[in-house]
């Protein structure tokens, strides 16, 4: 195989090279790469936990068949019916519209 090489002075030189040697020279960069080792572990995507029979937390049925709500519904027009407020130890909080009702603590004298 003939290869044409241009020198720094501008002359063109032809070189006779076997194709096997030429391929081996050109493939010089195709080597195995070193595997990266990370210092911190990969982040895992959060998996949502399904709570079975979650409706039992919101309603209670007594012996007579009367249904009562265990949690407070959000009164905001933005939320609508069926949106319950979370009950914390010192407040009720709506996660949809961020409405918060704080409890007043009795002051000791």
TrEMBL record:
Pfam family, one: Ribosomal_S27
GO biological process, one term: translation
Region (Disordered), start-end ranges: 28-48
GO cellular component: cytoplasm; nucleus; ribonucleoprotein complex; ribosome
Protein name: Small ribosomal subunit protein eS31 domain-containing protein
Family: Belongs to the ubiquitin family.
GO molecular function (one): structural constituent of ribosome
Entry's localization field: Cytoplasm; Nucleus
Keyword Repeat recorded: yes
Sorted UniProt keywords: Cytoplasm, Isopeptide bond, Nucleus, Repeat, Ribonucleoprotein, Ribosomal protein, Ubl conjugation, Zinc
Primary localization class, coarse: cytoplasm
Record-annotated Small ribosomal subunit protein eS31 domain positions: 55-100
Record InterPro entries: Ribosomal_eS31, Ribosomal_eS31_euk-type_sf, Ribosomal_zn-bd
């Amino acid at each position: 195989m003939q290869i044409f090489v241009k020198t720094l002075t501008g002359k063109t030189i032809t070189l006779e090279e076997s194709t096997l040697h030429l391929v081996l020279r050109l493939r010089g960069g195709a080597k195995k790469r070193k595997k990266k080792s990370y210092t911190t572990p990969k982040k895992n995507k959060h998996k949502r936990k399904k709570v079975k029979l979650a409706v039992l937390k919101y309603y209670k049925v007594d012996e007579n068949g009367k249904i009562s709500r265990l949690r407070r519904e959000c009164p905001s027009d933005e939320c609508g019916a069926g949106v319950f407020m979370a009950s914390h130890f010192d407040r009720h909080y709506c996660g949809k519209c961020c409405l918060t009702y704080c409890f007043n603590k009795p002051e000791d004298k």
